[in-house]
């Protein structure tokens, strides 16, 4: 049975099942859900807790199977936690997990909690994960996207009795906060907690309102970026955010070659899909044939009808020049610094994608 994260608190109140699987790439959210399950289990008499961390090819899964079927002399109920950092239990682990899942049916003395990272499509379709989902409760924790981050911050502030000002000032404060913690949810949580320590809400309602200056002075720049999120921002035409992300990737020591690959691959991919469209392929088929899924699929659907093949060819030529620049070659009329060249290439892509999402009347006026 699958549950959304927001459904878990109400589910726990109604009583615990005997098997839970938490998976996702947001460590903070998985850990908070696990803490809630541990506390509920403790209140319901699960006084013994056994933890197994499955790492390495030679991990002994027989110990996990044994602990799932035995109790100590000092406890009536036990909680068995199984952590699989790689998300891949292997052949022996797959068999063991299926056996544990089947045993969990009707077992009121042992509660099994599995904690996994984000699973790839192959793992999610595996027999072991299917058994966990069929016999227990699975909860998937998605990343908090940048557009949803201000609301998430506001909700977390509200939990601790704080909020930002109403209207435009408050939105500006939340956007600034989000810019500083993007891609680093655990650090965002810590920065939110720090605000409560620095500006504890008092008896009067005014003390609960955080100003922009208070947030600016308190919140550290702990944002973390990756090239995949950069790609989404470029395709969304978010020029200011893209420039900030490239600066962040540079400061984090990410390879220029990797950043260039991400940008160039998007251009090549758009060119292939555009060629397929011009050959008469329907958009869904063209995207599927070129392995474009998820968030990018929606972005491609929005951008490609309005971007010309000649524009994509020009971007591809620019990407070829930047490929040489990041490898130490020089190109006429281009910056000699690789990161500056990447900023320029990303800016060119942003400009074209931004033009695609403007209203027709505005595009016409610009042309």
Summarize this entry quickly:
The chain is built from 18 helices and 8 strands.
CATH architecture of the largest domain: 3-Layer(aba) Sandwich
Estimate the global geometry from the Cα principal axes.
Answer: globular
Instruction: Name the CATH homologous superfamily of the largest domain.
Output: P-loop containing nucleotide triphosphate hydrolases
Helicity level: 55-70%
Main sheet makeup: 6 strands, parallel
Output mean pLDDT.
Answer: 88
Strand order of the largest sheet: 1-6-2-5-4-3
SSE layout and pairing:
Layout: E1 2-3, H1 8-13, E2 19-24, H2 27-43, E3 48-53, H3 61-67, E4 78-83, H4 90-103, E5 110-116, H5 121-124, H6 127-135, E6 137-141, H7 149-159, E7 163-164, H8 167-181, H9 185-198, E8 209-210, H10 212-218, H11 227-235, H12 239-251, H13 256-278, H14 283-289, H15 294-303, H16 309-326, H17 338-357, H18 360-366
Parallel strand pairs: 1-6, 2-5, 2-6, 3-4, 4-5, 7-8
Explain this structure.
With 367 residues, the protein is α/β, with parallel strands linked by helices. It folds into 3 domains: 2-141, P-loop containing nucleotide triphosphate hydrolases (Rossmann fold), CATH 3.40.50; 146-218, Helicase, Ruva Protein, domain 3 (Orthogonal Bundle), CATH 1.10.8; 227-355, Zinc Finger, Delta Prime, domain 3 (Up-down Bundle), CATH 1.20.272. The chain is 57% helix and 10% strand. It contains 18 helices and 8 strands. The protein has a 6-stranded parallel sheet with strand order 1-6-2-5-4-3, with helices on both faces. It has a two-stranded parallel sheet with strand order 7-8. Residues 359-367 have low confidence and may be disordered.
